[in-house]
Amino acid sequence: MEPVASGSIVTLKDVAAASGVSISTASRALDERTASRSAAAAHVRKVAEELGYRRNSFASGLRRGETRTLGVLVPRLSDTVMALMFEELERAASSRGYFAMVATSGDDPNDERRAAETLLDRNVDGLILATARLDDELPRRLRERKVAHALVLRTDGVSPSALGDDEVGGYLAVRHLVDLGHSDIAVVTGPTFTSTGIARLAGARRALGEARLTAREEWIITGGYGIENGFSAGEALLGRDNRPTAVFAANDNIAMGIMAAAHRHELKIGEDLALVGYNDTPLAARLPTPLTSVHVPLDQIARTAIDLIVEPGAEPQVRKSMPSLIPRESSGAPLVHGNGK
């Protein structure tokens, strides 16, 4: 293999010559979209690496009318689930030869629209939205404009969507508490404008119904997904004589807020109050009382979202990944007398 002159830019022609193949063969071997596993392609890639060749994906994408870039819109990156989701989307996009860039929008629909337009102004090949509301106009507008897009973690039921099966997840959480002997079970769920909030509550109600338990409406609390929302709900539920013995919190942030409220009321999680969270964030297993939580396969959801954009038109358009329950100390041991009081 002849060395390339020091300081010069290594071209595709240089790689082809050093590999002993044609320029078109070298180009195909280095195209991340095809990722050929043949021995010849592997040889070309090895030579390219030794020469220090860098493929200009942006320029080649422009020639095809693509930028190989995807825009990801999340409410906020301070939310652990959203940050983890973006990391998984970034990895999944990279494996398909795409670069992912993120923008945040908060919960305001106008800010969401502006953030989406900012990403589109950068000629992204598609948008992935983790912001969808059931009353959100943005997915409809994207469909009308024929903009490639996918919703992630949430769905409006129409646009291509990749998410966990939230109804199954809510069912698993409450079924676990029922199986431990609890009958006085509260549910603290997310906003009613999100598919997650509605579906997790529906699953919880199904588990209660199967056990012939009636959910007390004062023990069903809807609100935001922040720790402060969980603390407020915990205060409302635990600051009374007639309190639940178990709580399903529809995400781990809510669960941590309820833990703080329980501590304030001198209740021990796992003994005086059983608690189940949702999403199984990394902190859940490392809390002073490790949190039982519903695990959602974010990596699988991310790969599905990328597929929905890269391979549009495949059925079904709304694809759900199966969650699983991870039992830990916060849900406690089975009750002996049913209601734990």
Automatic annotation (TrEMBL):
What protein name does the entry list?
Answer: LacI family transcriptional regulator
> Would I find Transcription among this entry's keywords?
yes
Q: Which UniProt keywords apply?
A: DNA-binding, Repressor, Transcription, Transcription regulation
Known SMART domains for this protein?
HTH_LACI (SM00354)
> PANTHER family given for it?
HTH-TYPE TRANSCRIPTIONAL REPRESSOR PURR-RELATED, LACI-RELATED TRANSCRIPTIONAL REPRESSOR
What InterPro entries does UniProt report for this protein, alphabetically? HTH_LacI, LacI/GalR-like_sensor, Lambda_DNA-bd_dom_sf, Peripla_BP_I
Q: Which SUPFAM superfamilies match?
A: lambda repressor-like DNA-binding domains, Periplasmic binding protein-like I
Q: Where is this region: Disordered?
A: 318-341
The residues covered by the HTH lacI-type domain are: 10-64
